[in-house]
Structure formats: C-alpha cells, structure tokens
Design a protein that fits this description.
Elements (H helix, E strand, L loop, with lengths): L1 H10 L1 H70 L4 E7 L4 E4 L3 H4 L6 H6 L6 E5 L8 E9 L2 E8 L1 H51 L15 H51 L3 H33 L6 E5 H18 L3 E5 L2 E8 H17 L6 E9 L2 E8 L6 H4 L21 H11 L3 E7 L3 E9 L4 E4 L2
Parallel strand pairs: 7-9
Antiparallel strand pairs: 1-2, 1-5, 3-4, 4-5, 6-8, 8-13, 9-10, 10-12, 11-12
Helix pairs in contact: 2-5, 5-6, 6-7, 7-11, 8-9, 9-11
C-alpha cells in the first residue's frame, strides 16, 4: 500500500511539475553562480594586473629619477611591506642577465628567465603570464616590461589571496546551491499545487457529478486565467447537459403519454371486438381503426426522428437557390381551399421577390406547418396574413393570424416537443409541428419567434440569414 501511494505520487502531475520547476530553477541558479563566479575571477584578475602595471610604471619613474640605488631602496621597501613570500622584483637586461633583484628566498629562486619573451618585449606594452612552481602551493602572476633602455623589470605576485577568495566563493556556492535547490523544490511544489488547484476543483466536481450530484458546479476564482475560463466552459457544458437530460426526460414522459393513448385505444377496441364481436363488419371496423391509430403513431415517430436528426445536424440540407416569394405563393394556394372551407381569408403581402440559399423541401415544411397551425386556431371570418421583407440583411417571413391566441407564458414553451397550450388540446395534433419548424429554421442558421396574446391572434416570424440573395420587384 505504501509503495503504491509512492508510485501514485510519482505519477502525479503535481510531482512532475515540481520536478520541472526545480530542474529549471537549479539550472538557472547554476548558470547565475557560474556567471557571477567568472565575473568575480575576471574582476579580481583585472585588479591584480592593474596594480602590477601601476607598480611597473612607478618603478620605471623611480629608476629614471633616482637610479639603481633609489630603485633598490624602493624595491626592498615594497617586498618588506608585502612579504618576501608574496612578491619579488628582478631587474634584467634584454639578454636575460640579472642586474638586480629583491630577496628571492627559497621559493622564487627556481623562477626561470624566458629570454625569448625578453627579446620580444616592446616599450609601453607589458606582458602578463601566470606560472605554477612545483615548490609553491599557489600560482604566481608575473609581469615583464621595459623600464629603461636595455632594462626589463620582472615583478611577481603570489595569487594566494586571490585563490583564497575563489576558494571561499566555491565553498559558499556549495552551501547555498543545495539550500536554493531545497527552497526551489518547496516553491515548485507550492506553484504546482496552486496551478493545479483549479484542475482539482474541476476533478472533484466531475467526481461528484459522476456520483449523481448533477447540480454541482466548479467554483470560479475570478482571476480570468486559462483554468478559470476552462471552469466556466465546463460549467456551461454541465448546464447544457443538465438541460438536455431534463429535455430528454420530458420527451420520454411525453412519448410515454402520447404513445400510451393510441395503444390503449387499439387494445381496448380489439378487446371489445373480441368479446362482443359477432360479424365481420365489426372486425373490419376494428382493423380500420387499428390502421388509423398505427398511422398516427408512425407519423409521430417519424416526425420525432426528423426533429432529432435535424437538431443533431445528421440530416443534410440540399441547398439551392430558393425563390421565397414563389414558395409562399405555392403554400398559400395549397391551403386556400381548406381556409375557404373554414371561412378564413388568406392574404399575401410580398412586394419583392427574394432568392436565398436553402433546402426547398424543408422550407416548404416550415410554411406548411405555420399555415396549418394558423388555420386550425383561427375561427371563421378570421384573416391570415403572410408577408416577407428584408431587415438587416435577413429575410423575415411572418405568418400572422386573428385566431384564439395564447398567453405569454405558453408562448415561451410552444416550440417544446409535445407541448400544447390549453386552448389547443381540443384540436387534433401531437405538439411536434412547431418543434420541427424550429429545428429546420435553425439548421438554416435562422431563428423563429412567436408573439401572441389571448383573443387577438398570433404572429410567427422566421428570420433567415442572407447567404445568397437577390431581389426583384413583382410584376
């Protein structure tokens, strides 16, 4: 169990992010210390070289003004002040013969004279080099320069102090780097957990929803970062899923209710006929009623499938250039006899011909359903007005009637599947027509709206986007 927890922790994103942060920080720390260390070496070496070059110029001036004796006194004083083991002076000819030197002691006596270097010197251009003597623990920095015609001064300084500083820096770095790495690991762990805290909230919410708490939502921090935006999108998705689940439940309930009635009628009719039927005519009546109810069920099921396919985008649109004005004229001509039989007048108000890109067959279904509804719910002597116009680069089709109308509360639900307003329950229908109309209109990228009030009629307005449109006046 313990090793399983360790392995789970090592596989966690927080652990990997911590290692990543710590690795990046460690590399940056090493790089920063290395740059700082190299800068310190360069600065200390430059200071040492500058001091030795100043000393070289000072000796040159003393040699020129006070001669050999004055130079010797200055040399002895300098060596005495800095220490015999820390520095030395040696005056040479350009041929490499020693003219004068400070007390070299045991450690400086093994210094060789580089005659090739002496012959290559030029005036006012001193030459530096670093040497390592076998009997010395620390390196020596040496400068050669011409201080007088035919005379070369060699000054050497032990780099013990400089190397001690470098050693102290290395010790300091060896102490500080592990401390910084430990701090980086804690900082990386804190940053990783802070970064993943929102992800953890999403995970906890998803787990709660998996357990059945569909009302759970991810709390937003308000920072507006990527995780916060993801949480907002996740919440919107949950809202949509919950809405779909609610709709599916309502659809299931409605299907059960609407299918149960015709099935119950079929069973009841069959049962009565089987019990009391005495002649073939009664059985024929039962068969006709059964076929009629089955046709009604099939129409309902087919319409539900068509709505679902259209809303899901499975049903493809056979787009072509559609003459909306001609489509309206044909639909109104088709329903004119039915309207006349009910004493209803249909008026068409389309002064301009509109051509748009759409599926002609599906748009015919839209107009047919809207006209059929208008005729159903408009009493005798009423009027239905069908019009079309262009508003904000959209074709607006409207079907307005002077029928019974519906309340504002009911108008907000009439596009739901199987929903039927109270006043419409006495009229045959399944409550799917307007749902199909809305699905078709939305598949064309449009919208449908309804406005109504009881007793004054209803107006259904369909707006279709102008993908391809041309206009011409009707003759």
């Amino acid at each position: 169990m313990f090793f399983e927890k360790i392995n789970r922790f090592r596989r966690s994103l927080a652990f990997r992010l911590t290692v990543l942060y710590m690795g990046i920080f460690t590399i940056l720390i090493f790089a920063a210390f290395y740059v700082f260390y190299q800068a310190m070496i360069s600065r200390i070496n430059a200071r040492t070289d500058n001091d030795m070059e100043v000393e070289m110029k000072e000796c040159s001036l003393i040699l020129a003004s006070k001669g050999i004796d004055g130079f010797k006194d200055h040399m002895d004083n300098e060596v005495k002040s800095m220490g015999i083991n820390d520095s030395y002076f040696r005056l040479l000819t350009t041929a490499g013969e020693e003219i004068l030197s400070s007390d070299l002691g045991d450690q400086w006596k093994k210094l060789d004279i580089n005659r090739n270097l002496l012959t290559s010197l030029t005036e006012n251009v001193p030459v530096f080099h670093t040497i390592k003597l076998q009997n010395l623990k620390h390196k020596v920095r040496v400068i050669h320069g011409i201080v007088a015609p035919g005379k070369v001064l060699q000054i050497g300084h032990s780099l013990e102090d400089d190397e001690r500083i470098f050693s102290d820096l290395q010790v300091l770095f060896r102490i500080l780097i592990p401390v910084f790495i430990v701090l980086a690991s804690f900082g990386g762990w804190f940053m990783a957990n802070r970064s993943l805290s929102s992800v953890e909230r999403v995970t906890q919410t998803a787990m709660a929803i998996a357990d059945g708490a569909m009302e759970k939502r991810v709390p937003l921090t308000g920072r507006g970062d990527e995780i916060d935006r993801l949480s907002g999108i996740f919440n919107n998705m949950l809202e949509r899923i919950q809405s779909l689940i609610t709709e599916m439940k309502e659809v299931t309930d409605n299907i059960a209710h609407d299918l149960r009635s015709p099935i119950t009628r079929i069973r009841g009719l069959a049962e009565v006929t089987l019990i009391s039927g005495k002649d073939m005519e009664e059985y024929q009546t039962m068969a006709e009623s059964t076929v009629e109810e089955c046709d009604r069920l099939l129409r309902m099921i087919n319409m539900m499938l068509e709505i679902s396919e259209t809303e899901a985008g499975v049903s493809t649109l056979n787009r072509s250039e559609v003459d909306i004005s001609a489509l309206i004229e044909e639909a109104c001509d088709l329903y004119q006899p039915l309207a006349e039989d009910r004493g209803i007048h249909i008026e068409v108000n389309i002064p301009i011909t509109y051509h748009i890109s759409g599926d002609k067959g599906k748009l015919q279904r839209v107009l047919s359903n809207l006209l059929d509804n208008a005729i159903k719910y408009t009493p005798s002597g009423g009027t239905i007005i069908v019009s079309a116009e262009e508003v904000d680069k959209k074709v607006m089709l409207s079907v307005r009637d002077t029928g019974i109308g519906i309340s504002r509360e009911e108008a907000s639900r009439i596009f739901e599947r199987f929903y039927r307003a109270d006043k419409s329950r006495s009229v045959p229908g399944a409550g799917l027509g307007l749902s199909l109309v809305q699905a078709i209109v939305r598949s064309h990228g449009g919208e449908i709206k309804a406005s109504s009030s009881p007793g004054t009629g209803s107006t259904f307005t369909v707006s279709l986007p102008v993908n391809t449109i041309s206009r011409s006046h009707l003759h």
